[in-house]
Design brief:
There is one protein chain. The strands form 2 sheets. Strands 2, 4, 5, 6, 9, 10 and 11 form a 7-stranded mixed β-sheet that branches. This protein has 124 residues and is mainly beta. Helices cover 0% and strands 47% of the residues.
């Protein structure tokens, strides 16, 4: 059974950095996409970043553009989210997820394999 396991969350002050990892027992879709999502208390889940496993193409939410970077290490079946210049509004549970394809008109749709999440708290 495919598992996605997130790690790297924690508490950090505003302006700080964290790197999240998403380790897969095996990539659910070797030529699909892996994405990072987040959900803050009382808010809907939102997409943060997506990467194409085959080509390395990326998509970011406007709110994290220029601050967050998604990357992959296919030899380790791991996807990363480097988060810099963190803000209090970045506080959320962060999830990684997999989708069977790359592209389409909706970058955050159709993800159907999910991890359990890792908490990120940005506070002074």
């Amino acid at each position: 059974q495919v598992q996605l396991v997130e790690s790297g969350g924690g508490s950090v002050q505003p302006g700080g950095s964290l790197r999240l990892s998403c380790a897969a027992s095996v990539y659910p879709y070797s030529r699909g996409s892996m994405g990072w999502f987040r959900q803050a208390p009382g808010k809907e889940r939102e997409g943060v970043a997506v990467i194409s496993l085959a080509y390395g193409h990326t998509t970011y939410a406007n709110s994290v553009m220029g601050r967050f970077t998604i990357s992959q290490d296919n030899a380790k079946n791991t996807v990363y989210l480097q988060m810099n210049s963190l803000k209090p509004e970045d506080t959320a549970m962060y999830y990684c997820a997999a989708r069977s394809y790359w592209g389409g008109l909706q970058p955050w749709a159709d993800f159907d394999v999910w991890g359990q999440g890792t908490q990120v708290t940005v506070s002074s």
